[in-house]
Design brief:
The protein is mainly α and 123 residues long. 45% of the residues lie in helices and 7% in strands. The chain is built from 5 helices and 4 strands; from the N terminus they run αββαααββα.
Length: 123
């Protein structure tokens, strides 16, 4: 197997992937992989010991449950956008969305303040 074409995770992504693995993977058994178990010696889960995406089951079944991490690792940017304020990835509700949910509420309040100031200044 050539690991050059497999995406490498940062430390933050790797810790998120390990949490997903422990919580959602059907083949995870106390640090061991049931798919690789030959019945004699327990085989450690390759996804826990490497920061590349080695496990096909993890990529196909577990990783899509965290859409942000899945987008970061797969490079599919069509479903996600970056927030114009904080730079975080988010799922837009419409095609014109520029901000994540937290920044959208802050930006809305800022625009209301500006509008009220202009209105009060005009009278």
């Amino acid at each position: 197997m050539v690991t050059a074409d497999l995406p490498r995770m940062t430390e933050k992504q790797f810790s998120r992937a390990k949490k997903l693995l422990r919580r959602l993977c059907a083949n995870y058994d106390h640090g061991n992989c049931l798919l690789l178990d030959d019945g004699y010696d327990p085989c450690p889960c390759p996804q826990l010991i490497s920061n590349t995406l080695l496990c096909r089951y993890f990529r196909a079944a577990v990783l899509p449950d965290d859409p942000e991490l899945h987008t970061e690792l797969s490079g599919e940017s069509g479903l996600r956008k970056r927030c114009a304020v904080c730079g975080a990835l988010f799922i837009p509700r419409c095609n014109r969305a520029l901000y994540c949910n937290q920044c959208a509420s802050q930006e809305k309040r800022r625009r209301i303040r500006e509008r009220v100031r202009r209105f009060r200044g005009a009278t």
